[in-house]
Amino acid sequence: MDPRIVGAATRRHVGVVASYDFTRQAELRRWIPPSVDCTLTFTEDVSYRNNLELVSRLGRPELLAEPVDALVERGAEAVAYLCTACSFADGVAGERALREAMRKHGARQALTTSGAVTDALRAVGARRLAVVHPYQEPVDRLLAAYLKDSDFDVVALTPLGLDATEDVYTVNEQQVLDTVVAGDHREADALFISCTALPTYEVLPHLEERLGKPVISATQATAWALLGAVDTQAYGPRQRLLCRGSASGSDI
Question: Which of 32, 207, 209, 248 has the most crowded CB, counting CB atoms within 10 A?
């Protein structure tokens, strides 16, 4: 039996807030089983001059008020802010403030991508990380600082090599695979692919088999934690994190 249809008689409802420019909806939904309703809302547009200003403005807790209100009104049992850099740009305290703001607006369970990532990395026993990301300076350094403050050792930090004018949504799976393989480090016990704009669903099992260690992606970790919050398992064949079951035991 297809594991995606187990428990289909008991439907759950989760909500996702994405940044206004998010276009990987189809990628996200691949992790969501048919037994779960997933409602997606978006932040309002923000103006910015560079990558740091963009993620900093998208990381303001007040930006989540309207989309979270809408999700709660529609019955979402758990809500995730699906944006990696937006939730690590202000550090561990900033990530916590985002969750607090979501709960203030009625989310019974609230989580962010960055918080879900650290939970996922702990779930697979990771401590030393090789990280692949699409960010410009100094956002990459903020990512490394966030992971360090979350008790991980970043042994390699590899950019995708995009310039300031390139759109991260044009990156394809082969580029992700090649960069992760090149960015692996012999001392890393896991790899993390940052940014929910990157396509990772198909490449994760291939990377884990090739590199012999867990590979966690931002969207995968968010889906794992969000579905775990409603006692449901994300769907991702041969992905090590998901073979461990749901995240229902984590502190979200």
Answer: 207
- Residue 174 CB coordination number (10 Å): 10
Residue 150's identity, in one-letter code, is S
DSSP, collapsed to helix, strand or coil, labels residue 209 as: helix
pLDDT beneath 70, residues of the chain: 1-9, 164-165, 244-252
Residues 83 and 238: their CA atoms lie apart, in Å, by 24
**111's tokens:** 């989580």
Q: Which helix (H) or strand (E) holds 15?
A: strand 12-18
Nearest to 89 by CA among 43, 45, 58: 58
Judge whether 175 and 160 are in contact, CB under 8 Å: yes
Which 8-state DSSP code applies to residue 45? P
CA 125 to each of CA 120, 176, 231: distance values in angstroms, whole numbers, following the listed order: 9, 23, 21
Contact 193, 216 (CB under 8 A): yes
Does the model's pTM come out above 0.90?
A: yes
Neighbours of 151 (CB within 10 A): 10
70: amino acid identity, one letter: A
